[in-house]
Amino acid sequence: MKIINVLLTIVFILFASFQYNDADTVTWMLLYGFVAVMSALAIFKRYSLPLLLAGILVFAFYFLYLSPSILAWIQSGDDLMDQMSTNTPYIEESREGLGLLLGLIVLVFHLMVRNRYARMRKVG
After folding, report:
1. Which domain holds residue 48?
2. Burial environment of residue 116 by CB neighbours within 10 A (0 to 12, 13 to 18, 19 or more)
3. Distance from C-alpha of 113 to C-alpha of 86, rounded to nearest angstrom
4. Which candidate, 2, 45, 52, 93, has a CA 20 to 30 Å from the CA of 68?
């Protein structure tokens, strides 16, 4: 489990660092940085239930907010690597939505592992 958490930490640090030239740099560095910190804490089995739940809520609501753009992209058949234009704003929002989905999956994973450890401590 430790190796997975180390890899998740590194990946989300890289994701955050790739945002330096984005129009909304601070937002994405904070979001990806949050997942990196939660993954780093998980290396040492330091899970914060309030932070995990808050993060899951933020990522889920933001993902739902962007879901119409994701549906528009799916219906369009466009490639996500295409240039964004005024005619295709859903491309950038779909990329952002998929990044949110990845972060959400990781946070839910950490919550599930945290809950498993909490049950094991009660039993043992």
Report:
1. 2-123
2. exposed
3. 42
4. 52
Q: How far is CA 81 from CA 31, 57, 58, in A?
A: 22, 28, 26
Confidence of residue 11 (pLDDT cuts 50, 70, 90): very high
Q: What is the pTM of this model?
A: 0.90
Burial code (b: 16+ CB inside 10 Å, e: under 16) for 26-42 equals eebbebbbbbbbbbbbb
Nearest alpha carbon to residue 53 among 71, 70, 38: 38
d(CA 115, CA 122): 11
Give one word for 57, left, alpha or beta, with left for phi > 0 and alpha for psi -120 to 50.
alpha
Residue 78 has pLDDT above 80, yes or no: no
Q: Would you tell me the crossing angle of helices 89-123 and 2-17 to the nearest 10 degrees?
A: 150
